[in-house]
Amino acid sequence: MIIVLKRDRKEVLEDVRSRLMAGGFQYNVLEGVKYTVIPVLGDLTASDISRFRSIDGVDKVLRISSPYYMVTKEYRPRTIVDLGDGVRIGDDFRFIAGPCSVESEESFDRIAAFLSSLGIKLLRGGTYKMRSSPYSFQGLGDEGLRILSSVARRYGMKSVSEIVDLRSLDLFLEHVDIIQVGARNMYNFTLLRELGKSGKPLLIKRAPSARIEDFLLSVEYVLLEGNENVILCERGSISFDDASRNAVNMAAIPMLKDLSHLPVLLDPSHGVGVARYIPAVSEAAVLLGADGLMVEIHFDPSNALSDGFQSLNFSQFSRMLEKIRKIQNCLNSTCC
Ligand code: PEP
Ligand code: MN
């Protein structure tokens, strides 16, 4: 932290000094022409910083270190989330795919069978839906979770579904391999803490208006409770432009990979919101170093109960997968 005061405020300098000494901080005082600059070393919390900032006569307080620690590479260089049966996230590129919502056992089975035939190992399906309108399809709830887990087991796949509150935690722990925290719940610290205690693999999405720092601070809550099985998911931020559902900040992929040791996925479906642009954005994510993609698919998008407009149909998904596999081969071989 660096504290800056006006040079002529001697009494403020004395106040700051005595508080720093009382707090046991190491500091130095550099007198410039107009300002006095005080670099401070030590373990400073956000409340220390705000206390110094609120001293009358302190011009500014600059924080140097990041406000989170356990998500950073200083804490550990790399995390691979191991789901068992050879399915890991954070080493090979992985797809999590499936419909926006589990609609029925029959339709979900049809989608799982298709994905499994392509070698996809992670199956998503919303069961408790966070819809903007209370009149929209809200998901099948507990019955959806039961369908998700039995269909996933049938095809030897791992299941992913979004939890909306703690009332269904026990059911999620029983039925789901990765619990998703949706964008709207990224700030639900009570939920995050409980999921942190559970130790269950989590996929946490960035909220539509959260900064990268806010996102990583939310994830820090989970790690602090002892759960390091966390996957980060970028899904686009709110934007003035309604040509796409959200604005996907592609730079967030290398940034999150750099700032954190956790695997980073992109969800182009909720980010872009228009099926025909999703393959191109997904291909870019591979080149930017993402650890995988979360993509919505449906055999009949125009009749899907939620998010049909952004869901890829089977042939769009197959073509995209083929292209991404070619890109990966190219990245792994010597290109001229
Ligand atoms: C979802 O993945 O089903 C979903 C609702 O996404 P988000 O939380 O990113 O809106
Ligand atoms: Mn959706």
Keyword list:
336 residues, alpha/beta, Alpha-Beta Plaits, TIM Barrel, 2 domains, five-stranded antiparallel sheet, 11 helices, 18% strand, elongated, binds phosphoenolpyruvate, binds manganese (II) ion
What does this 3D model show about the protein?
The longest helix is centred in the last third of the chain and has 19 residues, at 314-332. The chain folds into two domains: 2-62, Alpha-Beta Plaits; 81-332, TIM Barrel (Alpha-Beta Barrel), CATH 3.20.20. Strand 8, helix 3 (105-117) and strand 9 (122-124) form a beta-alpha-beta unit. Helix 6 crosses helix 7 (212-224). It is 35% helix and 18% strand. The protein has an eight-stranded parallel beta barrel, surrounded by six helices. Strands 1, 2, 3, 4 and 5 form a five-stranded antiparallel β-sheet that branches. A two-stranded antiparallel ribbon has the order 6-7. The radius of gyration is 23 Å and the shape is elongated. The model has no long low-confidence stretch (mean pLDDT 95). The protein has 336 residues and is an alpha/beta fold. Phosphoenolpyruvate (PEP) binds next to loops. Manganese (II) ion binds next to loops.
Summary, kept brief:
By secondary structure, this protein is α/β, with parallel strands linked by helices.
Topology:
Elements: E1 2-6, H1 10-22, E2 26-27, E3 30-31, E4 35-41, H2 46-53, E5 58-62, E6 81-82, E7 88-89, E8 94-98, H3 105-117, E9 122-124, H4 142-154, E10 158-163, H5 169-175, E11 178-181, H6 189-198, E12 202-205, H7 212-224, E13 230-234, H8 252-259, E14 264-266, H9 268-272, H10 278-287, E15 292-296, H11 314-332
Parallel strand pairs: 8-9, 8-15, 9-10, 10-11, 11-12, 12-13, 13-14, 14-15
Antiparallel strand pairs: 1-4, 1-5, 2-4, 3-4, 6-7
Helix pairs in contact: 3-4, 6-7, 10-11
The structure holds phosphoenolpyruvate and manganese (II) ion.
